[in-house]
Amino acid sequence: MTNIVSRRRHGFAVITCPQPPGGVRVTxxxxxxxxxxxxxxxxxxxxxxxxxxxxMVSECLPNKTWTADTPVCTSTMTLQYVLRYC
Length: 86
Description:
Blueprint lengths: L5 E4 L2 E6 L8 E4 L5 E2 L3 E6 L3 E5 L3 E3 L12 E4 L3 H7 L1
Antiparallel strand pairs: 1-2, 2-4, 3-5, 5-7, 6-8
Protein name: Sushi domain-containing protein
Organism: Dreissena polymorpha
InterPro entries: Sushi/SCR/CCP_sf, Sushi_SCR_CCP_dom
């Protein structure tokens, strides 16, 4: 687990969040080494998967957590598709 850090920049405390929560078949952008308060990430479903539930945008809050419920993506490929095209 990533450490939650508060440090000072120009005399002000800098609030950082841990890495955003990931999910199965879900990616987020931008990928940063550090996310500060009000940073936002956008989630997308991997190829062959579609959005099912959760939030597709998340923001770093002052309490060092993220706003979103991690999105859930489900497969769009049926067995018939796999047998025909793979």
